[in-house]
Amino acid sequence: MNEAQRQKPYKLFINGNWQEASSGQTFATYNPATEAEIAQVARGDMADIEQAVVAARQALDGPWGRLKPKERSRLLYAVSQSLEQQVDELARLETLDNGKPLPQARKEVLGAARYFEYYAGAADKIHGEQIPLGPDVVNFTIREAMGVTAHIVPWNKPLNILARSLAPALAAGNTAVIKPAEQTPLTALKLAEQLAELDFPAGVVNIVTGYGEEAGVALAGHTDIDHLTFTGSAATGRAVMKAAAEHIKPVLLELGGKSPLIVFADADLDLVIREAIKGIVTNCGQMCSAGSRILVMDSVKDALLEKLVAAIKQLHIGPGIESPDVGPLVSAVQYGRVTGHIDIATSEGAHILYGGSRPAHLPQGYFIEPTLFDNVVPDMYIAQREVFGPVLSILTFHDEAEALRIANQVPYGLVAGIFTQDISRALRLATRIQAGQIFINEFYTGDEETPFGGYGQSGFGREKGLAALDHYTQIKNVAIRLH
Ligand code: NAD
Prior knowledge:
Layout: H1 3-6, E1 12-14, E2 17-19, E3 26-30, E4 37-42, H2 46-60, H3 63-66, H4 69-85, H5 87-98, H6 102-122, E5 137-145, E6 148-152, H7 158-171, E7 175-179, H8 186-197, E8 205-207, H9 212-220, E9 227-231, H10 234-246, E10 251-254, E11 259-263, H11 269-281, E12 291-297, H12 301-313, H13 332-348, E13 351-354, E14 371-374, H14 381-384, E15 391-397, H15 400-408, E16 412-413, E17 415-419, H16 423-432, E18 437-440, E19 455-456, E20 459-460, E21 473-481
Helix pairs in contact: 2-9, 4-6, 5-6, 6-7, 11-12
The structure holds nicotinamide-adenine-dinucleotide (NAD).
Residues 152-156, 161, 179, 181-182, 212-213, 216-217, 220, 231-233, 236, 239-240, 254-257, 288, 386, 388, 414, 459 line the site of nicotinamide-adenine-dinucleotide.
């Protein structure tokens, strides 16, 4: 941060300026590993959102609107390079604010840089098509920017998810108002500082930190936005969609998940263990696409569990800054939610095979052991609800049909993993599982290039890849009769 920013509280970034919240109020952000306050941050509300939306609207008609696509492309590429250059500082800040292990924060910052690089490459290739209507008519389409895009961001991958929607929105020529999560606002402000240094025209990107029920509600319900990207819980997604419906605004919803890893008897169990651990402990299980259910064929269940428990025992839990395998949960609230899920699962008759408590050597911070539940059946709460923590449920199946039925028997449909040597079976299941992304003999395969999004209550619309650009453009058709 520059000198002005070092004098806390952190300010809002609106129309290229750093300013206090109109109310003059601030809120605290905390280090989840120590529970200590890191900083005070401006508490934006409706008045600040109003200013930000006006700035974003005006910027559409300013220098930004007059840039050629290839000039936008170069600017986005410069953002990518700037993020890469500052990866160490950004990763440390993300780890302090969110708690995640430093190597994961690093990977996410580089992923954010990659979104800007990828969409920089796309910015000058977004074009319409000519439609043949016979010799007397010329007909073509134009892909126009939507206008002012709104982005409401969660706390689990703060900078990465922000970049995931901001980069394609800017590539297509839109402007943006961003509301970071109140738990993790710092890296968004750091990005704003970089944009200012890169001479992004004022008002193209505006960042209003604040609470969901104040700044978030004001942004979702604003009459002068043209598109809203929301990433967060299904409950908030529902509220946001209702608010946007009031003014008939299009929304892209990226919500939660209860994603399965389906393990057949012919699977390589060592591979399964590696992927399953990655699937549930990355970011302390606070991943929308976490693999939170293992569906294992009954004949290999015992062998799998023995290896799984042995592997979980090896995991090192500690402050993210020490690069452990597992860091803390993000907040006291999230700690309460996760332990609440563990209590409900136990009361329903699920059996804790490993974990379930705070690690004895970490009396402070929001630490919880990776937790493994056996004796889980498909209609239990723990098998249906997203925990958003390192809590893994084991369910069994006897044949492919039963595996498919259990996999689809949840309200969500974000991702699924299939582990088998039988490619026909894997592809058969891939076409029948109700989820937006299928991994075969891996978990989390897929990068910035691959479309990502949900079925069912995991939301709708696709981010990442070229598919995302569809949300940030609208098609206009032009018809000319030749006389
Ligand atoms: P959340 O829904 O509580 O908050 C998300 C954002 O919405 C925050 O910025 C918050 O301030 C804001 N918000 C809260 N109430 C609002 C309201 N009434 N109107 C407008 N904005 C409001 O979610 P969270 O707890 O921050 O994130 C966890 C959830 O996000 C999990 O369910 C997870 O699965 C989901 N998630 C999904 C994806 C995905 O890509 N599908 C990615 C990450 C997280």
